[in-house]
Structure formats: structure tokens, C-alpha cells
Design a protein that fits this description.
Number of helices: 20
Number of strands: 17
Strand order of the largest sheet: 6-7-17-16-9-8-15
Structural class: alpha/beta
Distance between the termini: 41 Å
Length: 580
């Protein structure tokens, strides 16, 4: 279940349908979807010479070009296409839609094609963002409540994305969902209805004769598990330590692009960099490594580059000159890659030190993995108020990290930490200058994802002593990051473990489609309404790499979260509760 391959296959087939020079016309969504899995240079090799947005009207007329159009089948896009076809700017049009067209939409397009420039119309289900091979999203922010005016449109977008993912992978899964979540229930019901419609129209929609086509009956079909982000509010606020997750949390990733323009002293050519597992072999090999192992890998890469530099400097004969000219493009590419990862690593290191994230994370791990409230309260108060460590002065933790720690404490000790929480709120107001409005996110977090909301059959907090599993050996990397900072596992791990063992409670997670069979599912698709994190993506990748359970996992979500975006969602959730 490789979603990157699925989207790449669609795009490759699409641009090869039309021979000769062509332009690629897309909308806002499909532009992002394609850019995640293809570089511009790759598509140029398929004779695609222009990339344009369908909604832009003032484009030049180029009748010698053929247009490959990839858009979502929205009414807005249909209107743009009708306008385009009435006054065509290109010689031929090959129309590809990411979902099913209604008969009314087809008739409207046929009527607009007065110049008979449409050569082909097809449905290619590239209607989701393939972030990693086993992680995808529909890029829909704020999905914490169904009581918003735009929820129906968000629900439709989510449904379209899940259905497209199933169609692109040619699977018809059984569906389980989190019964206690209104959001998960609505999504499961909507997906069930959508897939049933597609199943009845299978022969037209899926041009496959293989055993994976929709409608093909399998003794052990894949499983789609739909859950609510409220089931695990802890992972989005924890400090991340794997490469991809750290970059997103501390700098920010948007469609593989990282904005480094705010980094002190950064070179002009490093202000915007791309981190793509498709284009960048180093990133592909290290995107899930922890910070310590990453430092070792970057050190090795720099040493390899230094050796290569010595080799390049040796130009004495004509043979040397010929070799240099042949190798120079690869050498220059290697130089840029080394500079990029060193620059990113230096910024991560700067923020880890500036924000004292090693100290912050150690406290986070102890609270998440140990139920000792007294020790947690003492350590947290010391972290908030004491700027000394081992007798030396240290900078205070940041306002953002102080809030995250108190939020975690409020969740961990919800039933018994009331008096301590009041003291922490006072410290946040007096020492960190939080307003009462800013601190309301702590109460909102408990309202959104408190104990009364979460399913009780799979506890969020596993009571274990966080140092007990270390066995006396610490794995240390370049900057001293040890596995004490990786003790907490996303709640997905507990859910998937119970699912694998056949113990996932059917009362809390009933079937919307299908029923429990004799065999365990060997393919599981998880979709999180409210968003997923890159730490969860790293955990899914680890499960797939090990394959100890004989099962392949695919993670999807409404968006990719960071602590910052999660807090913004909580603020919006507060607005909804207050009717704003």
C-alpha cells in the first residue's frame, strides 16, 4: 500500500497519454498533490513545458501545445473548464478528474466543447496528498467539531480523499470506527455510502482485471480504522525527535518545502530548501532517524564530501579534466545537499539548545510514561521557576514549551492534579505573562480530549516506570540524545497492538462494514479525523519496516499537525463552543 507510487503512476500515465509538447493545467489542490511526488525536472522529461493554474484566465494562446488537465471535479473547476473550452488556448485537451463526474457535469462539458478540442476524459483518483509512502492527508485543517458551518464541505472532502485512496490502491476495505466520536462516526458512514456507490459502478470506474479491483471479494479484506484525534491528544504536544518530525515542529514543512528565511545568518540559497524522500537519497535514508543518529549520519556525509572534494581538486591531465567535467554536475548536487542538511541540522541544534528541549523532553517523557504525580509536580514546578541546573545558570524555557508541559500534566493527572494545576496556572500568568484567554486552551484540551471523551478500553497512558525499560544501556548519538527521549509511543501503537491480537473492543470500535473474521487483517488503513503527526508517521514506517506482525499499515489524516497548529485548532474549538 504505497500511496506515493499510486499517485506517481497516475501522473506518469496522464502525461504520456498525449504525445508531443504539452502543458499541465491543475487547480490549487492538484498542484500540491503532484508537487509532493514529482519534481519539476522529472515532469519536464515527459515533454511538459508549462505548468499553469486552470483558474488563471490571462494565459497566452499556444495552439501547438496539448493540455493535460488534472483537477478535482468541483463545481468551481467545471465552471473554469467550460470557460476554457469555449475559448480554447491549446490545440487539444485531455481531461483527468480526481473523482467521479456526474452525468450533468459531463453534459455541461460536452456542451461547452464547441471547438471539439477535448480528446479524452478519464478519472484518475489522485485526490489526496501522499506525504510519505505510507502516510497521506487531505490537507483539511481544524476538524475538531461537526458544529461548524463548513463541516459538511469538510466531510465531503474527507470522504472524497478516503474513497480516492481506496480506489487508487484498488481495495474495498471493511470499516471500523470509534463509536464514541461523532466525527469518526460521520466519516465512517459517509465513506461507507461513497464506496457502496462506487462498488455498484465498479466496471466503469476501475479498469483493472486483477484481484485488487473494487468489488472483488477477498476472504481477508483490508481494514479501514477511523478514529478521532481526541483519542490521543498527547502525541501532538510532545517534543519530536525524528528528523522529519523535528523539522516540521521546529521550522515547518509545507509540501516538502522548508522556510529557513527566519534563521539567523542563513545563506540566501538556503532560505528555501526542499526535503523530499523522492529527490533526496540522504533524507530518504534518515527521515525517521532520531536526532542523535541523524548527527552521526550528517557527520559521515560531510566526511564523504570532503574526500570527494580532494578528488575533484586533482586536475593535472586531460583525462583529469574530462573526468572533472563529467562528474561536476553530481559533485555540485552533492555539495548543495550537504550544505542543505548541515544548515537544517544547525538550526535544529540551535533550537534544541535555546529552548532546552533535552530538559523539557525528559520531563515530558517522565509524565507520559510514569504515574508518579508528586515527582512530576515537583519537577514541573522546578522547570517553570528555577533557572539553574547542576549549580549553573540556564536560560528559562520558552513560553510555548511551558504551556505544553502544563497541558500534558493536566491530561496525565486529570482526576487528581487540580490543586497543582492551579499553582501552575498562576506561575504561567505571573512568570510567563500568559493571559487568561491564552490559558483557556488547557481547559479546552480537557473538554475536547479528556478522560470522559476517550475510549476506556485502550488507556491513553500506560502506567510504567519510564526508566525501567532502559536496561542500563543508553544509545548515545553525536549530541547526546538518548533513547530516554523516545520512551513515549503514539497511542496508535496500543490500538494496533490490540487490533493485531484480536482484542480491540468491538463495543468501542464497532464495524460499519464487514465483521470480524477468522483471519487477522494483513493490511490496515488508519484514518485520524483531526490530523496526524510526523512522529506517528515514523512509528508506522517502523512497523512496516519490521513487519513483525505480518501486516502492512497505511496512515491517513485530515492534516499534518505540529504543536503550534494543534494549539490553534484548540483555540478555534473554543470559538465554536462559544458560538463565535
Amino acid at each position: 500500500m504505497n500511496v506515493v507510487k499510486a499517485i506517481r503512476d497516475y501522473v506518469s500515465k496522464m502525461v504520456r497519454v498525449a504525445n508531443g509538447m504539452k502543458v499541465l493545467l491543475m487547480d490549487q489542490d492538484t498542484t500540491g498533490i503532484v508537487s509532493l511526488v514529482f519534481s519539476q525536472s522529472e515532469i519536464l522529461q515527459e515533454e511538459v513545458y508549462l505548468f499553469e493554474r486552470l483558474e488563471v484566465e490571462n494565459r497566452d494562446i499556444m495552439a501547438h501545445l496539448k493540455a493535460c488537465v488534472l483537477v478535482r471535479p468541483t463545481e468551481e473547476n467545471i465552471a473554469h473548464l467550460k470557460r476554457e473550452l469555449r475559448t480554447p488556448k491549446y490545440g487539444e485537451y485531455y481531461l483527468f478528474f480526481t473523482g467521479g463526474l456526474s452525468n450533468q457535469q459531463l453534459e455541461a462539458l460536452a456542451s461547452a466543447d464547441e471547438h471539439e478540442v477535448v480528446a479524452e476524459v478519464q478519472e484518475y483518483y489522485a485526490d489526496y496528498y501522499a506525504v510519505n509512502p505510507d502516510t497521506w492527508t487531505v490537507n483539511v485543517p481544524f476538524c475538531m467539531s461537526s458544529k461548524t458551518s463548513d463541516w459538511p464541505s469538510k466531510l465531503q472532502r474527507i470522504t472524497d480523499g478516503i474513497a480516492a485512496c481506496c480506489l487508487s490502491l484498488k481495495v474495498l476495505p471493511h470499516i471500523r470506527y470509534q463509536k464514541g466520536s461523532d466525527l469518526a462516526s460521520q466519516v465512517a458512514q459517509s465513506v461507507k455510502f461513497s464506496l457502496q456507490l462506487m462498488q455498484t459502478d465498479d466496471e466503469r470506474r476501475v479498469k483493472s482485471t486483477g484481484p485488487w479491483m473494487l468489488g472483488a471479494r477477498r476472504d481477508n479484506p483490508p481494514l479501514l480504522l477511523i478514529i478521532d484525534r481526541a483519542e490521543d491528544p498527547v502525541t501532538p504536544i510532545m517534543t519530536a525527535w525524528t528528523y522529519q518530525a523535528m523539522v516540521h515542529q521546529l521550522i515547518g514543512i509545507s509540501n516538502n518545502r522548508v522556510n529557513m528565511s527566519h534563521v539567523p545568518g542563513v545563506r540566501d540559497d538556503m532560505k528555501q530548501v526542499v526535503l523530499s524522500h523522492i529527490q533526496d537519497p540522504f533524507f530518504k535514508q534518515n527521515m525517521y532517524k532520531d536526532f542523535g543518529d541523524l548527527g552521526v549520519s550528517i557527520k559521515q556525509m560531510v566526511e564523504q564530501f570532503q574526500e570527494q572534494s580532494k578528488y575533484q581538486k586533482s586536475v593535472n591531465t586531460m583525462e583529469d579534466i574530462k573526468r572533472f567535467v563529467e562528474d561536476y554536475p553530481e559533485f555540485k548536487k552533492m555539495s548543495g545537499n550537504v550544505s542543505k542538511h548541515v544548515a537544517v541540522m544547525m538550526e535544529l541544534q540551535r533550537q534544541v539548545q535555546r529552548r532546552r528541549l533535552l530538559d523539557v523532553s525528559e520531563l515530558e517523557q517522565s509524565m507520559a510514561c510514569d504515574h508518579d504525580k508528586t515527582a512530576a509536580a515537583d519537577n514541573l514546578m522546578r522547570m517553570l521557576t528555577d533557572n539553574t541546573k547542576d549549580g549553573a545558570q540556564v536560560p528559562p524555557i520558552t513560553k510555548e514549551d511551558a504551556l505544553r508541559l502544563v497541558m500534558l500534566f493536566s491530561l496525565r493527572y486529570e482526576a487528581e492534579g487540580t490543586s497543582e494545576l492551579e499553582r501552575f496556572l498562576t506561575v504561567l500568568q505571573q512568570r510567563f505573562e500568559f493571559t487568561a484567554q491564552e490559558l483557556s486552551v488547557i481547559k479546552l484540551l480537557r473538554h475536547y480530549a479528556g478522560e470522559r471523551v476517550r475510549s476506556q478500553s485502550v488507556p491513553l497512558f500506560q502506567n510504567k516506570h519510564w526508566l525501567g525499560s532502559l536496561g542500563g544501556s543508553l544509545k548515545k548519538g553525536l549530541v547526546g540524545v538518548t533513547n530516554i527521549f523516545m520512551q513515549h509511543k503514539p497511542h496508535l501503537d496500543a490500538l494496533l497492538t490490540q487490533l493485531h491480537e484480536g482484542k480491540l473492543n468491538e463495543r468501542d470500535f464497532p464495524y460499519m462494514v464487514g465483521s470480524s473474521g477468522k483471519e487477522k487483517p494483513t493490511e490496515v488503513m488508519i484514518f485520524v479525523v483531526g490530523g496526524v503527526t510526523y512522529e506517528e508517521a515514523a512509528h508506522i514506517a517502523s512497523l512496516n519496516a519490521g513487519n513483525d506482525r505480518g501486516c502492512t499499515y497505511l496512515l491517513g489524516g485530515t492534516s499534518i499537525l505540529s504543536p503550534y497548529s494543534f494549539l490553534k485548532d484548540l483555540e478555534a474549538y473554543g470559538d465554536v463552543l462559544q458560538g463565535r
